[in-house]
C-alpha cells in the first residue's frame, strides 16, 4: 500500500466507512461503494474521458463545451454511478 491509499488507511477510512454504514442502516439508508478509478477523468454528463493531471482542477469537456470544477464533476459522476444511472468501464 502506498501513496494516497496509505494515507486513507492511516487516517482510519475503514473505521469511517464502518460508522457511515452503521448510521445509514440506522436511518434506513444504505451506502453504495463506487470504484473511484477514472472518476476524476470522466465528464459526468456525457461520460467523455478527458485525461488530466492532479494539478488540473478544472474539467473542460471538448464535446459538450461545458466546464466544471473537477471535484464537483467527480462527485456528480460518483452519484450517477452509485445510483446505477451510469457506469464506467474499469479494466
Ligand atoms: Zn461532454
Structure overview:
- The protein has 91 residues and is mostly helical.
- It has two domains: 1-29; 32-91, no CATH class.
- It is 38% helix and 7% strand.
- The chain has three helices and two strands, in the order ααββα.
- The chain has helices spanning 3-10, 13-26, 70-82; strands at residues 58-60, 67-69.
- Strands 1-2 form a two-stranded antiparallel sheet.
- A hairpin with a 6-residue loop joins β1 (58-60) and β2 (67-69).
- The model has no long low-confidence stretch (mean pLDDT 87).
- It binds zinc ion.
Q: Beta-strand percentage?
A: 5-15%
> Strand count, sense and closure of the main sheet?
2 strands, antiparallel
Our count of domains comes out at: 2
According to DSSP, the number of beta strands is 2
Mean pLDDT: 87
Order of helices and strands, N to C?
Answer: HHEEH
Helical fraction equals 25-40%
List the helices and strands and how they pair.
Layout: H1 3-10, H2 13-26, E1 58-60, E2 67-69, H3 70-82
Antiparallel strand pairs: 1-2
Bound molecules: zinc ion.
Structure described in brief:
With 91 residues, the chain is mainly alpha-helical. 38% of the residues lie in helices and 7% in strands.
Note the main attributes of this structure.
mainly alpha; two-stranded antiparallel sheet; about 40% helix; globular
Amino acid at each position: 500500500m502506498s501513496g494516497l491509499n496509505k494515507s486513507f488507511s492511516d487516517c482510519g477510512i475503514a473505521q469511517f466507512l464502518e460508522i457511515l454504514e452503521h448510521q445509514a442502516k440506522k436511518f434506513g439508508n444504505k451506502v453504495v461503494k463506487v470504484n473511484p478509478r477514472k472518476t476524476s477523468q470522466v465528464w459526468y454528463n456525457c461520460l467523455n474521458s478527458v485525461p488530466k493531471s492532479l494539478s488540473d482542477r478544472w474539467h473542460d469537456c471538448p464535446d459538450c463545451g461545458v466546464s466544471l470544477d473537477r471535484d464537483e464533476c467527480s462527485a456528480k459522476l460518483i452519484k450517477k454511478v452509485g445510483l446505477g444511472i451510469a457506469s464506467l468501464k474499469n479494466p
